[in-house]
Every structure is written in structure tokens, then in C-alpha cells.
Automatic annotation (TrEMBL):
SMART domains: HTH_ARSR (SM00418)
InterPro entries registered for this protein in UniProt: ArsR-like_HTH (IPR011991), HTH_ArsR_DNA-bd_dom (IPR001845), HTH_MetalResp_TranReg (IPR051081), WH-like_DNA-bd_sf (IPR036388), WH_DNA-bd_sf (IPR036390)
Entries under NCBIfam families matching the protein: HTH_metalloreg
Domain HTH arsR-type: 8-106
Organism: Chryseobacterium ureilyticum
Coiled-coil ranges per UniProt: none
Keyword terms: DNA-binding, Transcription, Transcription regulation
Protein name, entry field: Transcriptional regulator, ArsR family
A Pfam family reported for this protein in Swiss-Prot or TrEMBL: HTH_5
GO MF annotation terms: DNA binding; DNA-binding transcription factor activity
Domain of life of the source: Bacteria
Amino acid sequence: MGATKTDHFTDEQNKIAVIAKALGHPARIAIIEYLLKVNTCICGDIVNELPLAQATVSQHLKELKNAGLIKGNIEGTAICYCIDENTFEVLKNYFSNIILTTTNQKCC
């Protein structure tokens, strides 16, 4: 069996790409911003904050969770979501390195 396209890139490159893809939808950005605003684990409140159906919000939450951007804890019959600090630390380091590198470049 042949190599997949992702096999040609480093683990870090693949990880950043998965995170960036998950952030590539405005509804997911809105969910992240809401979780940051409330600064706590929340359950059903997200659906009330977005102009989307519950099933659509659930799909966006699934994508964010699969990318490691949010965590979900089961509390009774509900899943409560909050920001996953570890993944945002990865993003912070990645973009800090880009900013530092581009600031010091003497090109075009």
C-alpha cells in the first residue's frame, strides 16, 4: 500500500494542519470565543448562543474535540465542554516562532 499525503510531512506539520482545518469555520471560531468568554465548562448553553441547529452545533463540537481544541467531560447525561489549554499552547508556540522569524527577516 502506498504512502498517504500526510506521510510526507512531520508530525508537527500534520498536527498544526488538523488544528487549522478545525478552526477553518466561523461557527467553530464562535464556539471557541464563547468558551473563552464564559471561562468554564458548559453543556447545552452553546446551542443557545449560535444561530444553528443542535445537530449542527454537535458536529462542530465533535470537530473541535477531534482536533484537540476543546475537551468534553461527561456529567450525568450531558457533556460539558471547555478549552484544551495544551493544544492552544502548541498553537501559541507555533505562531510565536513564525512571528519571531518574520520579524527578524530581511527579505522582500
